[in-house]
Amino acid sequence: MTIAKSSPFGITSLPDHTQLPDSDGTFVKNFQEHPQSILLTDSIKPTLEQLHPDGQYAIGQDCGIYWRLTDPPEKGAECPDWFYVPNVPPSLEGRVRRSYVLWQEFISPLIAIEFVSGDGSEERDRTPLSQIGQDRQKPGKFWVYEQIIRPAFYAIYEVERASVEVYHVIENHYELVQANERGHYPIEPMGVELGIWQGRYGNLELPWLRWWDREGNLLLTGEERAARAELELQQERQRAEAERQRAELELQQERQRAEAERQRAERLAELLRAQGINPEEL
Q1: pLDDT computed for residue 71 by the predictor
Q2: C-beta atoms surrounding 218 within 10 Å
Q3: What UniProt keywords apply to this chain's record, in alphabetical order (predicted)?
Q4: Which of 221, 164, 171 is nearest to 193 (CA)?
Q5: Three-state DSSP state, 280
Q6: For 158-217, what is each residue's pLDDT tens digit?
Q7: How many angstroms separate the CA atoms of 82 and 37, rounded?
Q8: pLDDT tens digit string along 81-134?
Q9: How many Cβ atoms are within 10 Å of 281's Cβ, its own excluded?
Q10: Residue 37 — φ and ψ, nearest 5°?
Q11: Which residues does residue 86 pair with via DSSP β-bridges, in sequence order?
């Protein structure tokens, strides 16, 4: 991992997450990106809680990952729309993370995801740092992820094309991950698959980026889990009510049979008495 540890700006010590900007002063999100980030986070939390019973992991949503000291500092950061870092504390010294600083932490994200808002060229830009000059202040995103930040997996999601590309580091470079028979992309260290789900989330019907488990079961959000639990409860109530009605019908039928048998016995007894026979002596 290459991180500038010296500075031409007169800085004698490297800044931490509290000393670096947590915003570049721009707004670039569309109305789909915020719920998309929430959807990814909400649905993966139960899985991450199983992977990290000690709670040692961090999720970033459009947060800066600082990899190089620059002026202004924002030029030395990339901001994935969503990323996950295993085995790090969710806060630092009791303070919420303002950014993720590689020279402070050294642990790379396991996966970084970019949501394409243009034609995807920015997310696939492989321009190296060596080609940066007066006309260009930052290297390409793809190059920074592949060569510097180095998440094991890098995903590029395009809602307009209903597609996602997933790359995996193999021998110091990214290679495309092939989709499995379900059209999903395995993220083995997390025990999940990433893919496109066409459906309604919130009030939007879109091809959403979502997680599945290894068996191809969709990982549900908290709201979806609650809705499923309510549906299962209703179904259980319906089964219990159907069983109660069945038992009641059987009891009623049994009573009817017993009453019919009693009436038959009484008629037989009357017939015997009419013939001068005491039925109790039989």
Answers
A1: 85
A2: 15
A3: Coiled coil, Endonuclease, Hydrolase, Nuclease
A4: 164
A5: helix
A6: 999 999 999 999 999 999 999 999 999 999 999 999 999 999 999 999 999 999 999 999
A7: 6
A8: 999 999 999 999 999 999 999 999 989 999 999 999 889 999 999 999 988 877
A9: 6
A10: -60, -45
A11: 57
Identity (one letter) of the amino acid at 40?
L
Which run of H or of E encompasses 254? helix 222-274
Give Cα 230 distance to the centre of its chain: 21
89 CB-near residues (< 8 Å, 6+ apart): 56, 58
Q: What torsion, rounded to 10 degrees, do the Cα atoms 47, 57, 17, 76 define?
A: -60
Nearest to 7 by CA among 140, 103, 84, 122: 103
pLDDT at residue 180, rounded to an integer = 97
Q: Give burial (CB, 10 Å; 0-12/13-18/19+) of 143.
A: middle
- In 3D space, the residue among 97, 99, 75, 90 whose CA is nearest the CA of residue 45 turns out to be 90
Strand partners, 65: 78, 100
Judge whether 21 and 73 are in contact, CB under 8 Å: yes
Q: Cα(166)–Cα(248) distance, rounded to whole angstroms?
A: 58
What's the burial of 51, exposed, middle or buried (CB within 10 Å: 0-12/13-18/19+)? middle
